[in-house]
Amino acid sequence: MIFLTKKYSSLFCGLVVTALCLVIYNHSPSSMEPLENLFQNIHFKLRGPLSPNSDVVITEIDEKSLDTLGRWPWPRKTMAKLVKKLHEYEAEVIGFDIIFSSPQNSSDHNALRKLQNMISPTQSLEAVEYLDQLLRETNDDVQFSQALSKASKSVLGYFFHFSSDGLDHLTPTQRKLYFEDIKSSRFNGFLRSDENLQLSSLNFPTAFAVESNISSISRTASRSGYLSFDLESDGSVKKLPLIVRYVDRGKDHYFPPFSLRILEQYLQGSLLFRVNELGMEEVILDNDNPIVIPTNSKGEMEVNYLGPRGTFPGISISDLLENDLNNEIKEKVRNKIVLIGATATALEDLKPTPFDPALPGVEIHATIIDNILSHRFLTQPSWTPVVDSIYLLLIGLVLTFVYSRIQPLMSLLIWLIFACTSFYLSHWLFSNQGFWLTDVYPLMENTGIAALILLGRFVKEEKQKLFIKKVFGQYLSPRVVKELINDPSKLKLGGEQKKLTALFTDLEGFTTFSEQLSATDLVTLLNTYLSEMTDILLQYEGTLDRYDGDAIKAFFGAPVYFDDHAKRACWVCIDMQSKLKVMRVKFREEGKPELFMRVGINTGSMVIGNMGSTTRMMYGMNGDSVNLCARLEGANKQYGTYSLISEFTYQSAKEFIEVRELDTLRVVGRSNPIKIYELLGKKGDIEESLKKVLPEFNQGLSSYQNREWTEAKKHFENALKIRPEDGPSRIYSQRCEKFILEPPAQTWDGVFNLSTK
To answer: Are 105 and 138 in contact (CB under 8 A)?
Structure first.
């Protein structure tokens, strides 16, 4: 029963942890994202940096450029010059990780505008036309727009706000204008698994507002896409949404990111988004060699970081603008995707990544483009939750089975082996297959199941210790109790049959002298007597079964078994009688009754275990051997003795005790007779008077058994002359006298039938 309880409680613990992990994984995954991100960072660092594709170059707004060209933002004519230079160097695609959200003109242009307002066309048509020409030539925004239009493959960016916080600077009019500026970048190329599928039902990221470039700049670029990242709680970028929903006047519009728009230009392809009722199925960059981009159901792509800052080749904008023609720079730029963005720390476009705590945002865009071009994806397909759930369920059941059957130290080893194996598998898939398998939930499940089962065991063990102390502390020695606590397997409460030794005691004439004492004096006397006797019992590691009035009932060899249980019982009896002899002197001096104790000891098979009702139980003994022990204690009255043992006890302890054979006895309730012995002392330790009595008594007993009544009586009388108080000699002398007068039948077998209990 104990085993079943342990097994099912461990199973319950395992199922609870497994269910909890599955619930969190499927219904509250965001709560574990910080840990998932931590493990992903570890995988990146263990994998190490990778070399980027050679198709992406970054022109940097770095510290050197700021020192040379002045603080940011630079004049638009500088940006126009940059575009022209990149066009001269035959850049394939130019992408701006920058937003030009407000008009910008030089001071000369503003002065000319004021002058134009002062001159009427009727005054001087020539002057007005000349001023118009000068205004165009000094308008930085116009110059920049013209440069973009000549660079046929340019891609601009804009920002989506994914939260309603921090939008006070945008008026409703501005929001409307910004949206009008990005409408041309909307996407409609959805491949639906069901033509009736409503895109609004899919869980795509939704933006609250947009900030775009001014209209004159927006309209001249070949394409545009959003630059926004959906940041994690730690500010890092783990995923890029490849589609964002924007709602304008109740209508949904969908937009792809900056990186995909650049690749459209670079590969001369088109975008396709395959969706089903679960969400995004895959994103396809369609050209002669289509690229399938794996995403999750929300259309998010995992970013597979290649390394720290500087992983991609970079060119300082100051270097690019200062040289009329630099063949080395031209070779770097020619036929490449050129991203223009800030890398200077002062511009604060920095994000924490696994390889760098402050990676410029433009390098993240470069990483995403490289991932797609090189097919270096981190994959978490839409079916991942199903596979992960099955995986968690299986390992939960396996770990529950394992942890419920091993010891705590082995549990620690298994925990370590599983944690390392799980992490190694996850890392191998991450590094070699680009598959992102969760680390947190298996570790959480492993730790939770191990901890809960071990905690359950600890609680059970503590309860077991308390139970053992409570049940056995009062009638077992502290050493034995400690041994049971250290090894509860020695304790079988359910009941077992074992060969043990029982000991029963009773005070002679207790009823008579108890009537002569007050209740207080009687209790005091009994407590003194029982305390001394129990101390001796526990000293030999005997088990106190119970007190029954003045009687002590005990046994030896359980719950902790020892082979010499018979010897210990005999020595306890001897020490008890010796102690009581000393106590009688003290009682006599105090005017208290002198106590004499009768003891019966028997060795045999008996049932040991927790006995009683369902609400109150005691650890005790039962069986025929126990009943015989009780009869032996009472048989002392028939022989004038105080310590009797059975032949079974004698055979087990004869090397350690001194005895005299008393009789062959048939007790009430038992058909087979047994030999009984009076226990005289420990081996080699007998009173001098008894040493002299024994030869006479033994000869008398031999003659008695041979029906030589007269000869036997003579020896018993001689024994009484040596020791007048010798009870057995007196009893046998009386029997011989009776048999001389009335001899027993010829069938007499020498057995004395005890007619009373």
So the answer is: yes
Q: Which are the contacts of 462, defined by CB distance < 8 A and separation ≥ 6?
A: none
What six digits make up the tokens of 114? 């004021």
Distance CA 336, CA 353 (A): 25
* pLDDT for the residue 125: 54
Rounded distance between C-alpha atoms, residue 638 and residue 644, angstroms: 11
Q: Could you report the per-residue pLDDT of 456-510, keeping only the tens digit for each?
A: 888 877 787 787 677 666 656 677 677 667 776 656 556 789 999 999 999 999 8
689 Cβ contact partners less than 8 Å away, ≥ 6 residues apart: 722, 723
Q: How far apart are CA 263 and CA 161, in angstroms?
A: 23
Distance (Å, whole) CA 95 – CA 87: 12
Calculate the alpha carbon distances from 673 to 94, 676, 731 in Å.
Answer: 114, 10, 19
State the Cα torsion 383-387-392-393 to the nearest 10°.
Answer: 110
Cβ–Cβ < 8 Å for 751, 670: no
Nearest alpha carbon to residue 359 among 300, 430, 306, 302 = 306
Interatomic CA distance for residues 338 and 315, integer angstroms: 10
Nearest-CA neighbor of 633 among 622, 624, 642?
Answer: 642
**In this structure, are residues 709 and 739 in contact, taking their beta carbons and an 8 Å threshold?**
yes
Closest CA to 711 of 720, 700, 697, 723: 700
Lookup result for tokens 């603008």:
321
Determine the Cα–Cα distance for residues 735 and 738; give it in Å rounded to an integer.
Answer: 5
Q: What is the pLDDT of residues 588-607, one digit of tens each?
A: 999 899 999 999 999 999 99
28-37, 109-118, 372-381, range with the lowest pLDDT: 109-118
